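Incident log entry.

Two folding requests arrived from the same account within the same minute. Monitoring flagged them as a possible duplicate submission, but the sequences differ. Recording both here for audit purposes.

Request one:
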Amino acid sequence: MKKLLLTLFAIGFSLGLYAQDPQFSQFYNAPLYLNPGFTGITPQQRVVLNHRLQWPTLPQAYSTYAVSYEMFVGELKSGFGLMATTDKQGSSGWRTSTASLLYSYKLRVSKDWVVSPGLIFGYGQQSVGDKLTFGDELDTGVPTSDPDVNRLGTTGFFDIGSGIILYNRMVWLGFAAYHINQPNRSVLGGEARLPMKMNFHGGMRIPLKTGMKITGKIDYLTPSFIYRSQGPFQQLDLGLQYHIDPVAIGFWYRGIPVPRAFQLETDEASDNLQDALAFVLSLQFNTFQVGYSYDFTISELGADTGGAHEISIIYEFVAKPFRRGVKKKYQQLPCPTFNSKAGFWN
């Protein structure tokens, strides 16, 4: 009975939240998913893999994958990228997949500051699997007679977004807007518009002096935040990471710490003000980075859901310019990240 109730809960929840985007706790380890302005923000080519498994104790847990590739072309002062995502929600087999092209332009507005506006153009598909269970099936034990079952199918849609980042060597601020065209993702042939998602994010890199004379390594802190809004739902992530390369550990809070400061449109959204506490551990090597995080659920769902596991893998390799001298002609200012590299910050 408990398993049946959990299954029904997963089905209902996946259908009820179809208008929300999946999210990553390690959002800065999914840079193109966070803001298209991050495209080509390092002088290397970069490949990023992300996987999130949410509520693993529920049958057919929520599973999200993202993979991206990007490069910076100094001759054009531009970044180019590709990204693909897929998200499977609950026991119903509800799946959303997208493929996107990204572009950003690097404008050095002063000696110390760079502005990076970006665009993302994507195409997606949403479908419902064959594992739905209707109310009359539970009562009669025979296949449903609901005529809407014949209308279920796969729908395709175009998606447009944009973003911008302002940064120097120590501080960054960004804003991004996704689903600007509010695409129709109805699988019943009707209309189900995806609300525009907006996020505002920022942080800074604070070098520390402890341990430098002993190890020769620089340790530092990176406090940061991200505020998200999509339809009636709002969310704030606050966190701090400590680094002494190649190791970084962090702690994050996700929710709305001061509910009365945010006006939510529905009581349903108000029930999810406190979401999770996340712990992050990452290892940074010369060209390779791997990160793991675990979310402890602090909402009304409780610990029985199993929280969420998340893994990120980042690989960077040197990009060759289109012709000799390109990098010397245009040396972009590196954006602060959660890890330092010899010769990159100096």
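Request two (distinct sequence, not a duplicate):
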Amino acid sequence: MPLSAVYTVPHPPLLIPEVGRGEELLIRDTLLSMERVGQEIAEIKPSTIIVISPHAPYMNDRFVISADHSLYGDMRRFRAPLVSVRKNIDVSLASKIYTESLCKSIPVLLHEEDMFVDHGAIVPLYFIDKYFRDYNLVLISLSGLSTEAHFMFGQSIAKAASSFEGRVVLIASGDLSHRLTQDGPYGFTPEGPVFDRIITEYLRNGQVDEIRNIDPDLAEKAAECGLRSLIIMSGALSGQDFSSEFFSYEGPFGVGYAVCGFDLEDNLRFADLP
């Protein structure tokens, strides 16, 4: 069946209380939005969740799709080793995505060895697991391939999901500009707020097809990490009927965090959750 829902989410480790130790309250809007994502996915009850992460194992010349039978990851890098996830991998859906991608001549690798689940995936999964755990995982990386290849890869994901019997949710993980403030991780550039304003406007208006037309020079100067995740997401949504709701945006630490949801099932309206 077609994708049930798609979400774009950020992945700051400090959103997890064991890492943030109170600092997560400084991005309360994002925190509440992530809780809502978890609650909505629990309502959908997907059999599989696909996570696109900028921090998954990366190859410049191809996408990497997890194909081992289970994956583990924890937040030891962020001084919270007890925060961990262990998920069974949906090898069947991973193989379908691989096949559909090859049909479009998109270079992909089925990674059959153990992959460590990175924080780009752990952060959203942490909030999903608070409300729902009975799902399999497919973890997908970005690549150094073209914008068009990322868009077509998203189309391949959607087509593979459409031939899958269970419900599937797609998570596009990625932060926006890292140059919003002088005291941010990369300092300030005027392009940072401009980039975030354009992206959030597209998300608010459901104009996902426009995301791939963003000036690459602007994106580079904004020091983003989520654009290619969003382009894959836009490919997955392209040509489909969906309703969208923009949950929140903020950037008090010099990094932009946006949360937005897209519903593709007529019978699954966004829940009226706090």
